[in-house]
């Protein structure tokens, strides 16, 4: 399997769910392969075979935890927390994820906040994010 990572975020995810691998059925897990372009980005828990900068943010109070991972390192993202990965090497990389759900999904913060249809009321977003309406308009136009 080869997944193209030539897109705006520089990564592509190929999910392996219970419908393709019957042995996963009822185990509440799934697998994924993530292909990263150089400096590509994506955001799910996985084993990382190249150099990656990863992190997550806790809630109340928000605290950032980061680590640079090298070949063979593992990293676990707590369920439900905002997290990220970035391939900081100038070469392609592949990661394999183990997900704690039989049918995983992703909510991309920027797409959900700035690209929903219909759009979230600008007053709600400017108050929640503490940003100027002009910046909000610019961010929504990019989604």
Features:
single chain; 143 residues; alpha+beta; four-stranded antiparallel beta sheet; three-stranded antiparallel beta sheet; 3 helices; 27% strand
Helix content: 10-25%
Distance between the termini: 30 Å
Structural class: alpha+beta
Mean pLDDT: 78
Overall body shape:
globular
The total of beta strands comes to 7
Unreliable runs:
43-49
Which sheet architecture does the biggest sheet show?
4 strands, antiparallel
* Lateral arrangement of strands in the main beta sheet: 3-6-4-5
What count of helical segments does DSSP give? 3
Strand content: 25-35%
Radius of gyration: 17 Å
| Order of helix and strand elements from N to C terminus | EEEEEEEHHH
